[in-house]
Design goal:
Order of helices and strands: EHEHHEHEHEHEHHEHEHH
Shape: globular
Number of helices: 11
Radius of gyration: 19 Å
Structural class: alpha/beta
Low-confidence stretches: none
Largest sheet: 8 strands, parallel, barrel
Bound molecules: SN-glycerol-3-phosphate
Mean pLDDT: 97
């Protein structure tokens, strides 16, 4: 399973990249706003900065919600850098735009997916990635991981090549459950990735090894 980081924060991207396990980055308008980035040029510059830091797909989201606007904006985003994946919302014009981008060879990420039916539409349009938001599904008292399992099954039935990119990850267990379910990618906050390291027996064991080595050293 590929690991993407879900942030527009350059320090966090650098930290994840330094671990040697980072495969890509996803962003969205909320994550850009969280970084205090204002103005279109600053947003575009941040995408380029991220692309230069990570050798992998970087999702950049369109703001337009009409077909023509999404094509114009997505084309501009795709021209920024080879790593850019155009992120498009799960709405009818978004599906039309994904079909056009697919025909043009521009990679896409269909975002705001909350059902298997929506994931089916994204795959039929040729999306490179589909982003089910598992944390937000859990928040609304449904089971986000169950949706990942359902999409894995539906895509396998028909050999769809769209990659399942589990998004809205909130904790390390979400990452593990996505891996069990067969998601192709998990896009995670840095805190969830770092949470994977944690086990008290690792800390206790290391402490003991170091203490015992002091005895060996004399
Ligand atoms: O990748 C989508 C993600 O940024 C949404 O996460 O935590 O706002 O549901 P969250």
């Amino acid at each position: 399973m590929d690991f993407f980081i879900d942030t527009a924060n350059l320090d966090q991207i650098k930290e994840a990249e330094a671990l040697g396990i980072l495969d890509g980055v996803t962003t969205n308008p909320s994550l850009m706003a969280k970084e205090g980035i204002t103005g279109r040029n600053a947003v575009l510059k941040r995408y380029v900065d991220i692309c230069e830091m990570v050798n992998g797909p970087v999702s950049a989201e369109v703001i337009a919600t009409d077909y023509a606007g999404m094509i114009k904006e997505g084309t501009e985003l795709a021209e920024l850098h080879d790593n850019i994946v155009v992120k498009v919302p799960m709405i009818p014009d978004g599906i039309k735009a994904i079909r056009t981008f697919t025909e043009q060879g521009i990679p896409t990420n269909c975002t705001l997916v909350f059902s298997a039916g929506q994931a089916l539409l994204a795959a039929k349009a040729g999306a490179t990635f589909v982003s089910p938001f598992i944390g937000r599904i859990d928040d609304s008292n449904w089971d986000g991981i169950e949706l990942i399992e359902q999409i894995v099954e539906v895509y396998a039935n028909y050999g769809f090549e769209t990659q399942i990119l589990a998004a809205s990850i909130r904790n390390p267990l979400h990452i593990v459950r996505c891996a069990e379910a067969g998601a192709d990618v998990a896009t995670c906050p840095l805190s969830s990735i770092m949470g994977l390291f944690k086990h008290p027996l690792t800390d206790i064991g290391l402490e003991k090894f170091l203490a015992d080595y002091k005895k060996v050293e004399g």
